[in-house]
Amino acid sequence: MIRRFCAYGLEFKDSDGFTHDWCTLIPALELEYKTSIQSSTGKTPAMLEKGWNSRLPYDTLRKDLVDIHPTASSFKLILDKARHHAHRCMQYSFKYAKEKWDKSHKPPDFKIGDLVLLSTLQFKNIKGPKKLKDSFAGQFMIKALHEPNAVQLELTGE
Fold first, then answer.
1. What superkingdom does the record give (predicted)?
2. Which end of the chain lies in a sparser environment, N or C, as judged by fewer CB atoms within 10 Å?
């Protein structure tokens, strides 16, 4: 996502001709990421982390004001452009990652009664050196299917 944001020579000029490059606009990318709804959770990262979404001072400004300083309004325009560009970059990178993932992964075709191995990656109760720990345990029979990747196993007393 950051690579896409920085890739095409992102430059914005304000009314005074001052050029803002991508490193000065990284906060716009961060703000856009933290306030965009993630498909896996249905919430924004800021909401999950803090319980509220970030807001900038310009979000609370009245739009009908006429006495806004020109430099402030041009900076707001540049920041809006940067957020819009960040949003496009995020959508592109999410789409690209999904295409790459879907291309190389297919859902498993488990059936009730199949014998499967159980990954021991998250087991914390196995003592001894890590390199001697088995990566998988079992062959366990599938008792029920809950999701394409979630199954209930019939564990033995081993």
1. Eukaryota
2. C
Tens-digit pLDDT profile for residues 115-154: 999 888 888 877 778 778 888 988 899 999 988 778 999 9
Cβ neighbours, 10 Å, residue 137: 14
CB–CB of 117/139 below 8 Å?
A: yes
* DSSP state string for 66-132: S---HHHHHHHHHHHHHHHHHHHHHHHHHHHHHHHHHHH-------TT-EEEEE-TT-----S-GGG
Specify which residues 148 forms β-bridges with. none
Query: Which residues, in sequence order, are CB contacts of 5 under 8 Å at separation 6+?
Result: 22, 26, 29, 85, 86, 89
Q: With the C-alpha atoms ordered 16, 17, 22, 23, is the resulting torsion angle positive or negative?
A: negative
Give the C-alpha separation, 140 to 107, whole Å: 19
Query: Residue 1 in 3-state DSSP?
Result: coil
The verdict on pTM exceeding 0.70 is: no
